[in-house]
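Hey, resending since the last one bounced:
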Amino acid sequence: MSSPAPQPPQQPPQQPPEQPSGQRSAQSSPAGQDTGVISHRRTHPITPLVSGWKIVVGVVAVLTAQNIATLLEDFTIRRALIGAGVLIVVVVLTIILSGLSWWKTTYAVSEEGVALHSGLISRSRTFAPRAKIESVSVERPLLARLLGLAKVRVEIVGGGESYLDIEYIKSQDAEQLRRIILEVTGAGRPGQAAAAAPGIAAGEAGADREPTAAGAAHPGTAAQGAAAAPHGSVVLSGSVDQTGSADRTGSAEALPATAGTAPPSGGALREALYDGVTDGELIAEIPTRRLVHSLLRDMDFLLGILMSVIGVGLAIFFALWTEGFSLAVIVPLLPALIALPRYVLGRIEAGWGFVSRITPRGLRMRRGLLNTRTDNVASGRIQRFRLRRPLLWRAPGWTAATVTLAGTDDEGENGAENALPVGTREELGLTLGHLAAPLGTDDDLATIEHLLTARARDIEGIRSPVAWQWIARRTRVTVLLPGAIIQRRGILARTLEIIPRERIQEIHVSDDPLGRRLDVLDLEVRVAAHTAHLTDLPREDARALHAVLTRDAARLRRFRDRPHWPKPALAAEGA
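The structure tokens again:
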């Protein structure tokens, strides 16, 4: 009998190369699971404590406020111990349920987008597709910041509540996660962004101009203003600093958007103040001295505080006068007492430690004293600009700039839409130069300065013809420029509402018997997430303006013409 042939020795299976923690390739992921660089990772274990304490405090506050009189009248040691025991049981149960919910909550990042799995009994999956992700911000509330944690918010195209929150993870992991998500969406790849929407060269198109009702010209694009600017100056860029003593060129070559800079020097305090934003070219930085002075010079802010103090004082006076002094009378007034410090703190938070830098992913901003946050704003998302200059800001030339973002409802003082809480003329020019398409004039920054400083009657534009509207006739004027439509208004605080003409999506005309009697029309100019109301315009001028803006809405936003949409004057080449 022949012996069996010897079997070759078995080779141990080769192990795939080890990948970084938390990362897997799409091929190695099981079917039915999210694939990508981060797959089903949990948040930090103490997340239930950070996010759940507000619920417990809120329930206790509501129950106490509703039963404060009964508790004071029938107070005994036994009842206090029973209440404390019930509160402890509720807290323990809340912690247990929150912990189980945390165990079932995971997030994943794949080539398709970002997914959040949650639910203890009923499972749910929230998904942000890659193509629908607008921006990624990192927020650090006070308690989370003390514990070294942060929240990552993924904004999605859609309504104001279209976002996905990943809370809470370590601060350094949050920054890394933000970069990974931006790389997945392609926002961090300049080459890809350039292929998707390259800008046009100055003066390349739009040679045809037609007269409009406002006395301005209507080009095919808004880029001719850059071509008309003299050598050495650039649209939306300041030519002198805030003291007027030194020239500064505003060319795109002088301020490369992709150039990295060293972290700001000045010790540990400065590093902690401007944490998280050290890359990119510096655009604006608000010193604490300027922030404090701006609040003391803002008449609206001071009047708001004065009226709030008077209102709360009167409420307390009448409550004590009718009911007498008691804790049951004071407790219902606590929300009003808390609202005023919260309003003041909100204004301080909006500008405290504010720094903005231009990066390949857009304008990155950091702000906050107790609760800090960082945001990214890309020029392609901006639908509208609003510039505000109070009366006492005119001497130093300070201006506040807010923007309206598509798919984002974040209009708070410390939100992403507050692009510049209080900036100098130079900082305003750099901010708008990197975010706004040219207005189409020889010097856009000088035009904006004229609209903010000149009297309304000295501005060429469209205003109400109604004689008895003497305030509106002297404060409100509508100006049509080659690249935007601007409405100036305000008495003590002058504001400019700037809507780029290529962003207009719809024009609506309102007419009524009174308007026909006064020979006026109302126009509504609609862009994504905002509607501008142009009221009481002369009928003939309103019709001419409606015809021009309707043509803009019909042809300037066609998707097939996207490579020819205007781009910001200071945008980096290929960005």
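The chain has a mean pLDDT of 74.

Sorry for the duplicate.
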